[in-house]
């Protein structure tokens, strides 16, 4: 008997990234769109998903900017993505500092970036690296 993990096999399609942000804006009652989004949130259990969603809810505007139209020039896309990642990454770091115990930080950092990756074509690790690179290459504004 084969285990179906959504990868490989005949007739199986690999899971694709969620690009429809409106799924997150459904009501609190369970709906097919919400279940579909949870299927794509690989590695996020339902409680973790809800925590990430609620904490990042004020930043929906920046999450949307991670997935921009294809016809937008590459430079503009990159600019919006970098700006959004700085805001999102700073917000994640604030959460980690204020709400997490030392032993929880690694877990929640991973989960929050995984949630952010649902709104982008990039993986969580790639987004975090881009955030760190963008953050380190920014000039200090108020010294």
Automatic annotation (TrEMBL):
<feature type="domain" description="Chromodomain-helicase-DNA-binding protein 1-like C-terminal">
    <location>
        <begin position="31"/>
        <end position="134"/>
    </location>
</feature>
<protein>
    <recommendedName>
        <fullName>Chromodomain-helicase-DNA-binding protein 1-like C-terminal domain-containing protein</fullName>
    </recommendedName>
</protein>
<dbReference type="GO" id="GO:0005634">
    <property type="term" value="C:nucleus"/>
</dbReference>
<keyword id="KW-0539">Nucleus</keyword>
<dbReference type="Pfam" id="PF13907">
    <property type="entry name" value="CHD1-like_C"/>
</dbReference>
<dbReference type="InterPro" id="IPR025260">
    <property type="entry name" value="CHD1-like_C"/>
</dbReference>
<dbReference type="InterPro" id="IPR039880">
    <property type="entry name" value="CHCT1-like"/>
</dbReference>
């Amino acid at each position: 008997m084969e285990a179906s993990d959504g990868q490989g096999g005949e007739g199986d399609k690999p899971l694709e990234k969620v690009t429809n942000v409106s799924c997150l804006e459904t009501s609190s009652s369970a709906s097919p769109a919400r279940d579909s989004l949870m299927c794509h949130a690989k590695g996020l259990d339902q409680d973790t998903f809800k925590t990430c969603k609620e904490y990042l809810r004020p930043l929906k505007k920046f999450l949307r900017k991670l997935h921009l139209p294809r016809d937008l020039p590459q430079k503009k896309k990159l600019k919006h993505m970098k700006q959004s990642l700085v805001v999102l990454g700073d917000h994640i770091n604030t959460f980690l500092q204020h709400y997490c115990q030392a032993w929880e930080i690694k877990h929640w950092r991973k989960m929050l970036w995984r949630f952010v990756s649902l709104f982008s074509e990039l993986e969580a690790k790639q987004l975090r690296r881009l955030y760190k690179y963008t953050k380190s290459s920014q000039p200090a504004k108020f010294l």
